[in-house]
Amino acid sequence: MIIKEKNRTVLLLFLCLLGGAFLRLFLLGRIPYGLNHDEASIGYDAWALAHYGIDRNGYPWPIYPITWGSGGGSPLMVYLVLLTTRLFGKSVASLRFFPAFLGALTPPVLALLTLVEPAESGDKTDKKASSRLIFAFFLAFLCAVNPWHLILSRWALDANTLPFFLTAALVSYLYAATRTAHRLPWYLLSAFLFALCPYAYGSATVVIPLALVLLGIHTCRIGRMTPRELLLSALLFLLILTPLLAVFAVNALHLPAIITPWFSVPRFTASRSVFPHGSGLAAQIKDNIRYLFLFFTIGSERDEIICNVLPGYAQMYRFTFPLTWIGLLLSLGGLVKKDLRDAAFVLLTAVTVLFSLFIELDINRMTMLLIPFLYFQSRALRFLYEKKAVIAAACCAVILCAAALFIRDYFGTRYADLSRSCFMPGYLEAVRDAKTLAGEDRSILSTREQLSAPFMLALYETELPPDAFLESVVWRDEKEEFRIAISFAGFTFGLPQDLSSIDLSRVVVILHESEVTDFPDIENCQVDSFGDFAVISR
């Protein structure tokens, strides 16, 4: 009977992993339709480095590209996209490949947590093996159908690779702690993977070192790590982090940029801080407590960017928060019992929450809570399964039904309609068409309506060499935190107040669909429509 149950579970686990991979890779270049300005920023810098060895700001092989002026384009994603650009060419699909590929790998890697059972519960009975397999299924299933993870796996924001590297680092660390011999290579692997996390997203620069200090002390206290292993792992972590620390030092101390043919340490053109201070700090903490309360219960949707949240589903499905709290309480109990796996997720959650109290919060800065939440919910389902299997099965069935509705809304028209302002569908095609029509004789005038940083999408689409961009670009304010180009190389962004002053013999115009009917003498113009945008010419 146990063997049949095991076979069924293995089949379900396989189908779950296969389905999760399919959902992340299916129509990747077409859904979401369009391109976000942050994706275009990463994509252009990767393309420029692949072909010219410099980014759009003129830095050769930057350790941390300054992108918009104050950072914001974490290097790990830029160099991953550089790899896919060289392998597959420049396209929306190749730009989004690594978030999707690593997103597809996250459920099976997360399921490997079952290999690191606590020593006191690690007997070899068939019943225990079956329980571990069930736990692996819960971990993979919840990750595969999680709305937050599915959405972030399908577009190329820099933070979107962080869940994979964090998961792989945690699994390596916990696996090392369960071994009785040859632990050091696994601890060193985990140190390497943990050190990649700050290169994936800025918030990890604070959270990961603090969490590792606490986790390392705890691991040594329970006898699962020696001082030598701790020291060598810490040294490797710091060694890999040194280039990033050099970037922080150059900018914090206002030192000159370091530029060599092989790498550069850029000097940002503007400073940026997510830490409020002075009289605004108390108000921010109060607002953050309210945000965190929602995040740990029904999920936060207020003021979140639609790129990572589909309204009605929140981050974890609104009705699943009791599982999160049950799993968190069970993990707190495991922490008392010196369960290192529970300790790792509790400490990571605690440090992330503490950090979150003192910053300007949004969902991207909460990404490090995704994997702990999935672990807590899986922990709860395993507990329910061992008490009454039918209850855990019913929970999974309800989550699967919610996932079916989410998949319908995400791949259907609802998400496409809601995310128009985020992905600006049709603008890339409009730029391509306008460039063809303009030729060498006319310039291109683009609207800013329903667009965020349209210059970045135009730069990505036209493949203008970075040195030509730097020679021609005119910034709205070169020192602002989020630099916006007014014009470059034949493109101008922003329409005149009097549309009748536009001479179509000299320019080709890109308009939002809502502006087309207001354009003078539109009936005598050629109008080419692309998604939400149209190209006007004669």
Task: Give a description of the structure.
The protein has a domain at 422-537. It contains 21 helices and nine strands. By secondary structure, the chain is an alpha+beta fold. The mean pLDDT is 91. The chain has a seven-stranded mixed beta sheet with strand order 4-5-6-3-7-9-8.
Write the layout of secondary structure elements.
Blueprint: H1 2-25, H2 37-52, H3 75-88, H4 92-95, H5 97-111, H6 126-145, H7 147-152, H8 162-178, H9 184-200, H10 204-221, H11 227-252, E1 258-259, E2 264-265, H12 280-295, H13 321-336, H14 340-356, H15 370-387, H16 389-411, H17 413-418, H18 420-423, H19 427-438, E3 443-446, H20 454-462, H21 466-472, E4 474-475, E5 485-488, E6 491-493, E7 507-512, E8 526-530, E9 533-537
Parallel strand pairs: 3-6, 3-7
Antiparallel strand pairs: 1-2, 4-5, 5-6, 7-9, 8-9
List key phrases describing it.
538 residues; alpha+beta; 7-stranded mixed sheet; two-stranded antiparallel sheet; 21 helices; 9 strands; 6% strand
Task: From the alpha carbons, calculate the radius of gyration and give it in angstroms.
Answer: 25 Å
Q: State the total count of DSSP E strands.
A: 9
Query: What does the largest sheet look like?
Result: 7 strands, mixed
What strand order characterises the main sheet? Answer: 4-5-6-3-7-9-8
User: Kindly, what is the distance between the CA atoms of the first and last residues, rounded to a whole number of angstroms?
Assistant: 76 Å
Silhouette: globular
Note the beta-strand portion. Answer: 5-15%
Averaged pLDDT, please?
Answer: 91
**Relative helix content:** 55-70%
Low-pLDDT runs of 5+ residues are none
Counting DSSP H or I runs of 4 or more residues, the number of helices is 21
Query: What structural class is derived from the secondary structure elements?
Result: alpha+beta
Secondary-structure element order, as H and E?
HHHHHHHHHHHEEHHHHHHHHEHHEEEEEE
